[in-house]
Amino acid sequence: MDSVIFDLSQTPLREVNQFLHHNANGKPIKILNPNGAHNIAIGLDSPISVEIAGHVGYYAAGMNQLANVTIDGNAGTGVAENMMSGRVHVKGFASVSAGASAQGGLLIIDGNASLRCGISLKGGDIVVGGSVGSFSAFMAQAGRIIICGDAADAIGDSLYEAVIYIRGTVKSLGADAQFEPMSETDYQTVGELLAKAEFCHDPKEFKRIASAKQLYHWNADANQEY
Amino acid sequence: MNQSESGQSFSLEESAGYDRRILNYIQNAAAHGLYEIRGLGAKRRLPHFDDLVFLGSSLSRYPLEGYREKCTTKTILGTRFAKKPIELEMPITIAGMSFGSLSANVKQALGLAATEAGTSTTTGDGGMTSEERLSSKTLIYQCLPSRYGFNPDDVRKADAIEIVIGQGAKPGGGGMLLGQKVNPRVAEMRTLPEGIDQRSACRHPDWTGPDDLTIKIQELRELTDWEKPIYVKIGASRTFNDVKLAVHAGADVIVLDGMQGGTAATQSVFIEHVGIPTLAALRQAVEALEDLNMKDHVQLIVSGGIRTGADVAKALAMGADAVSIGQAILMALGCNSETYIQNETHHSAIADYNALGTAPGYCHHCHTGQCPVGVTTQDATLEKRLEPQVGARRVKNYLQTLNMELTTIARACGKQNVHHLEREDLVALTVEAAAMARIPLAGTSWIPGYSNF
């Protein structure tokens, strides 16, 4: 099927997003000259493919449902924030809060991700080819984050049920986060997500970080750690 | 002089600094090593709308006939950018309160009442329930730091979106829901394990300052094809600057919550000691809008201690476009009442108040989830004490009373439209209120810190 092509240097963003919401009818879409514009491909809710040829600003593919969005460049703050389903692939680096609060779907970042990657995650999966910045997975509630590189400070601070798998080093664990032994299911999970993201690492190289669950309930002796 | 039981007289002098309330606080802290958490709002006395009065009409102003002449209360919110502004029959809305803090029955009752009264309800920290969407004709959907249950389908179903920066009871703090209230349905809606003590985030996960907020607002507009109004809710603190920043970020409507505003559960030190009174905040917000020349372009909703039709009228006269009510709505439902109504009969709830260590008139135990009148609970037995139809009737009656009181005052001031009430109609009874509201002390032209005699 031929792609519908939009050139953001010619067509206003609002028109492009409205087309994606109402008139895409399953056709593949290509967006040219994004030039770091914010809010590209927000709120897609059908199984369409969207390719963005260049760098994007804040919230690219935000709240995605069903669509498959590829960003052929770097992504600004909050890429795929609150994603519900579908797939978002950043071929470059991602700025802060990548995949924030995502409830479903798969976010793939080929390069590094900045601070707070996967903050508040609620069930989505994130695979980062490079490293992640401090406070990644902060208060993450559900879902899985695979980090092929290293993590900066306070990874997994105040985690709930989300699980982190990391291949490289951890500068420091956040409050209530702990390393746990990998089970067969964990290796399988990592293998499956790496395959989906098309990264070739051995799942055996990954370590598991999850919540120690010491902050799940008020505790007078916890010394204000929460 | 006091008399002992034996008739001997002796002198007891209570310390002002270390009175029985403070002694109790210190001894509790010593016993438990943990601060007190409670529901509702600030209990201390604050300068408030009670400290203002209307001048009414006489020879220099011409009144309207109280029972005959028209006085409209229609209110339109969100006219700045949204294609579909919110149109209400009255300038009195129901504040955001979560399913989780309130039962599903209560959320349904509020929706039914608001629909009948021609006003809106607001979701809360816990997402949109189907009961609420079905029962409420005009539903405002909150986007909170926690993002519990936040999803694009519900954004599309909503009539407006309210980005919550803060709350008057705790500006700078996130929500709390103790484990007793995190039942299976609440847990599922919030993607949390059942029964945990939930502490919500206080900052949004995907934006930090006002420049980011501008882009976040645009994201929500793009998602909704620029149809729905975007409200921004702030807790009252540095209100003049915060309102300016929210307007600059592109808000259609500012929701301003003063320190008397309620909460389902927060540290009492936060409730009583952080934030500024509604009266002072409202005046600052109006000044910010006037300073930007945005009065009437960006609408202002004020909340935090609105209880009576007089409070509504005073808020409007000071420059608000509408008010929002939380705690008083719960009280209309029966909060702090001695009885609850089940199967058309009043039943005493006093024993259940006592079991919580409190009594009707003093209860602020929303955080326990054991609300004796079935309002702030997720308990299967207790929640049945609030029947949606009964609750809806009481809330509708309450809203109707406020609206009638509001028009009574407006007519007395000679206004055919409640939105025509103005600051000039008001005077202050105390020096504090005069200074905070920037309204002259009654019988003078004196506004402390502003004008000379």
UniProtKB/TrEMBL annotation, chain A:
SUPFAM superfamilies: Alpha subunit of glutamate synthase, C-terminal domain. One of its GO terms (molecular function) is oxidoreductase activity. InterPro entries: Glu_synth_asu_C_sf (IPR036485), Glu_synth_lsu_3 (IPR012061). CDD domains: GXGXG. PANTHER family: TUNGSTEN FORMYLMETHANOFURAN DEHYDROGENASE, SUBUNIT C (FWDC), TUNGSTEN-CONTAINING FORMYLMETHANOFURAN DEHYDROGENASE 2 SUBUNIT C. This is Protein glxC.
UniProtKB/TrEMBL annotation, chain B:
It comes from the Bacteria. GO terms for biological process: glutamate biosynthetic process. Residues 77-337, 362-415 form the Glutamate synthase domain. It holds the Pfam family Glu_synthase. GO terms for molecular function: glutamate synthase activity. The keyword Oxidoreductase applies. SUPFAM superfamilies: FMN-linked oxidoreductases. InterPro entries: Aldolase_TIM, GltB, GltB_archl_type, Glu_synthdom. Keywords: Oxidoreductase. The keyword Oxidoreductase applies. Belongs to the glutamate synthase family. This is FMN-binding glutamate synthase family protein.
